[in-house]
Amino acid sequence: MPAPSALRVALLGCGVVGTQVARLLIEQADDLASRVGARLDLVGIAVRDITAPRDAIIDPALLTEDARALVERADIVIEVIGGIEPARTLLLHAIASGASVVTANKALLAEDGPTLYRAADEAGVDVYYEAAVAGAIPIVRPIRESLTGDRIQRVLGIVNGTTNYVLDQMTTHGLAFDEAVAQAQELGYAEADPTADVEGFDAAAKAAILASLAFHTRVTISDVQREGITKITADDVAWAKQTGHVIKLLAICEATEAGVSARVHPALVPLDHPLAGVRGAFNAVFIEAEAAGELMFYGRGAGGAPTASAVLGDVVSVARHRVLGGKGPAESHYAGLPIAAPATSRTRYQMRLAVSDRPGVLAQVAQVVSATGVSIEAVRQVALPDQDSRATSVGSDGSTVALLVITTHHAAESALAQTVAAIADLDAVQDVMSVLRVEGS
Ligand code: NDP
Ligand code: HSE
Question: What is the tens place of the pLDDT at every residue in 111-121?
Answer without folding.
Answer: 999 999 999 99
